[in-house]
Amino acid sequence: MNVTTLTPPLAPSVISRRVRVMIVDDAVVVRGLFARWVEAEADLQVVATLRTGREAVEQLERTNPDIVLLDIEMPDMDGLTALPLLLRKKPDLIVIMASTLTRRNAELSLRALSLGATDYITKPETNSEITAASSFRRDLIEKIRHLGSRAKRARVAVAPAVPRPASRAPIVPVAPSIVPDIAPRLALRAFPPVAPRILAIGASTGGPQAIATVIAKLGAVIDRAPVLITQHMPPTFTTIMAEQIARVSGRPAHEARDGEEINSGTIYLAPGGKHMRAKRREGTAVIELEDGPLINFCKPAVDPMFASAAEVWGNWVCAVVLTGMGSDGLRGAQAITAAGGSVIAQDETSSVVWGMPGAVAQAGLCSAILPINEIGPRISRLFAGDRT
Question: Which of 148, 224, 289, 359 could make an S-S bridge to 274, C-beta 3.0–4.6 Å?
């Protein structure tokens, strides 16, 4: 067994301030490189580097990671086999699947998400490309930090109380009725007086599962309105995701094609590596794809889709911002509300990361902030003319 444990397990009474990371990859160069990157961050620590999924399962309880970076293709036990075993031992474990960008690995990564993985990351093809890819390092560390911090907060929340010195004065409990609400109350806008005619959805981390949940509950909405979706995702992955959306919705869904008409009854997914916009051409709404610079570090990005939808449809737009890191979608949501349209955001509790939806919610742009299971039904009522 080729196992490196870099930090001892914590005593039950000791709570680490750093996010604990397990790295599982059969390539020793990759393990070492990832470990150096993680250990270079003051708020992260590597608790183990392992070669196979079997070793990860065996070492899980002893090393107690917050987050596991799990390769898909490994000898002895691959990542997809190890995933449910890891989650069975630790249901709240955060797992990021790692794979190279092939159709097979894209299918396996999206399948892993349906089995409980939290997110995925696509590795460059060769070790030298991984070493040279500063953007890949940034993306990897950002995912680990954002996702792992959630697990760390949960770990601290359930930590045993630290005994207070006897010399301190006792703390008098405050009556519940006068305890201040520490969570700011977010202002909501009224829904527009007209029923929407176009639905635009943006998402990032945790998005594939969230989008599937919403789409599955839309029903007749798709028949009466086009649906535009931008999910932060690379090429090949978006191809597979479009196929999954078609199966979940029972409606036509595909990667958007440059110049095609936007019609009711169809779901259009922004292809990986291209920004998707709507454009009015000779009185007809069409797709416009752009291979331009990254926007908000992303391509595709949500902002151009939202902003262009506002230009084409005005107050007929209903935009939905689902789970994701960062604030992509904020400027586009501002354009939609300025045009008289509506914005719905996923709530913090049901989001994997409350970055994108949190940004629009805290900016006061939302007409509703809802758990993921309530968003689809609320959209259906809204498109049917129910503004309550």
Answer: 289
Scored b (16 or more CB within 10 A) or e, 363-375 reads bebbbbbbebebb
Residue 171: inside a domain, yes or no? no
CATH of the domain at 111: 3.40.50.2300
254 among known catalytic residues = no
- Report, as an integer, the average pLDDT of 318-336: 98
Asked whether residue 134 is assigned to any structural domain, the reply reads yes
Structure tokens that stand for 197 in this block: 């005619």
Active site residue 328: yes
Confidence (pTM)? 0.87
Residue 88 belongs to some domain of the structure: yes
Q: Active site includes 380?
A: no
**Once rounded to an integer, what is the mean pLDDT over residues 306-314?**
99
Q: Which residues contact 51 (CB under 8 A, 6 or more apart)?
A: 1, 2, 3, 24, 25, 26, 28, 31, 74, 75
Shared-domain flag, residues 284 and 367: yes
Q: Which of the residues 328, 347, 350, 351 is marked catalytic?
A: 328
Q: Which one is catalytic: 232, 347, 350, 351?
A: 232
Tally of domains in the chain: 2
Q: In this structure, are 142 and 227 located in the same domain?
A: no
Distance CA 115, CA 129 (A): 30
For residue 102, the enclosing domain spans 3-156
Which listed residue (99, 109, 204, 367) is catalytic?
A: 204
Q: Which of 156, 189, 224 is the last residue of a domain?
A: 156
Q: Is residue 246 over pLDDT 80?
A: yes
